[in-house]
Amino acid sequence: VSHFTARPMYSIRNRHERFLSKSSLADICSFPSSNRTLSEIKIKAMVVSSAFGFNQMLSSKHHNNPSSSSPMVLGTRAFPTNNKTTGGLIRCELSLSSVSALQQLKKSAIDRYTKERSSIVVIGLSIHTASLEMREKLAIPVAEWPQAISELCALNHIEEAAVLSTCNRMEIYVLALSHHRGVREVTLWMSKRSGIPVSDICKHWFMLYNKDATQHLFEVSAGLDSLVLGEGQILSQVKQVREKLRNGFGMVIPGLFEKAITAGKRARAETGIASGAVSVSSAAVELALTKLPPGSASSATMLVVGAGKMGKLVIKHLVAKGCTRMVVVNRSQERVAAIQEEIPSGVEIIYKPLDEMLACAGEANVIFTSTASETPLFLKEHVESFPLPADARLFVDISVPRNVGSCVAELDSARVCNVDDLKEVVAANKEDRARKAMEAQDIIIEESKKFEAWRDSLQTVPTIKKLRRKTDRIRADSVVKFMSKYGKDMDKKTKEAVEDLTRAMVNKILHGPMKHLRCDDTENRPLPETLENMEALNRMFELELELLEEKIRAKMDQK
Q1: How many other C-beta atoms are found inside a 10 Å radius of the C-beta of residue 419?
Q2: Which stretch of DSSP H or E encloses residue 315?
Q3: Please, which of 189, 336, 513, 536 could form a disulfide with 351 given CB 3.0 to 4.6 Å?
Q4: Which stretches does DSSP call E strand in 260-365?
């Protein structure tokens, strides 16, 4: 309701603009049937507007002449559709004596915030939509996630929130009282924190609601939205978010991430989407290990020539496959030392200078080459001079130009694999992962349905709590009145008996309604039927106002 002035038209502009407490709404809207003066009503309305931040959200307009005696017009989208619409607002003309119409207004304002549940919204920018520079500015370090979540939850229309910030994506998941205003508040928060204008964020973001948001997170957790299909790091990052949400950050969003982890695990376990190398470096290691005799991988001598980007990745993949000792040849020792710092303890990396390369190669079973040399490092005459190995020495050359001369492949004592051989492996694995991604979609859909069913079941929890509180409040008030009139002559034991009796009566009366609100395994009632029962009880016991006041109280406590 807009500021109360002499103007006769007031507007409620949006379905989830704000929420009013029972007393505030009644005090403002019931003025035709009360004895309050217009000045008193204006003061009350200004207090409520200030308390709930209406000043910039609601507007008032003149209808004909402010001093005229024409009927007062109240505009709201919450009213049933009629023929009197102007500017997108559905209007209902009331005379000052029309109490029933004002009751309709009160009821419609309540319904906006109790009949529709909050929306799950994801606002994100990823490697698919935004540049690295923009993602860097928006990125939030893991240590700052709890603070960011607290700030987001303090926004007017946000109940719960989570942050998933990685090198490839920045995504904010929220449970919003109003998805329009919630998105606006989150976007302004992102802009303020990063220094990026809202207009630039909007050019590169994506937004998904409810079921689409749920399915997106499940796909992310399963690695289906990653550059490398099925990669495992993103699942670990989703688990990190789940851990940050354990400290009282709501129920729906933490539940969403819990189910996302389940979906990610199932997709990998049941489809094998994470198997098969899909990068040149990982394919080089995978291919080399398959060429070795069974059981000899851990004892084989590994030589890596070059400690640049590709060489570093080869070393990390070898470590991931269980290799604990390797020799690295490089021009400078600094790069090798830097790699050693990133490798877990227990792995031995032996540095050798470039002039000892041939001697080291003569002792190795597998040789990986990844240097920028424009001429081959290994020629036929070099390899012929090496001691004969028990099995053919394997050269895995991932350099362009090649570090191993094509003539080396002519020797019986050597086997050579180059980039083209590895690309075939990568392409085959990528095609296989794409097929498995289609299978994973079925799992994603199944887990999404389970989450939606779980979320639907939560709707009855507030009704159960409020019904219990309301009936107990009525019971307590009645006992107090009874005791004030008849309790003077009662001893302590009799008074306790009255308390116990009234509680037992209330429990018996509530047994039937509570039974029809349960969504656990004790009742085999379909969920739609349970939700119908919930709505009926909300109407019969007038719980909507209490549910509304709880939302207001929660937001005010956050502030």
Answers
A1: 17
A2: helix 309-320
A3: 336
A4: 302-305, 325-329, 348-352
Which residue of the set 167, 360, 417, 519 is catalytic?
167
Each residue of 147-161: pLDDT tens digit? 999 999 999 899 999
Beta bridge partners of 170: 125, 165
Residue 399: is it exposed, middle or buried by C-beta count within 10 angstroms (0-12/13-18/19+)? buried
Cα 126 from Cα 309, distance rounded (Å):
24
Beta pairing class for 302-305 and 206-209:
unpaired
CA distance between the termini of the chain: 22
For residue 118 the two structure tokens come to: 């909050």
Give tens-digit pLDDT for 222-278: 988 887 778 778 898 999 999 988 876 788 999 999 999 999 999 999 988 877 766
| Residue located via tokens 């035709």 | 32
Query: Token pair for residue 16?
Result: 């989830």
Does pTM surpass 0.90? Answer: no
226/179 Cα distance (integer angstroms): 27
Contact indicator for 121, 178 with CB cutoff of 8 Å? no
Q: Respond yes or no: is residue 417 known to be catalytic.
A: no
- Cα–Cα distances (Å) from 196 to 143, 161, 547, in that order, read 22, 21, 38
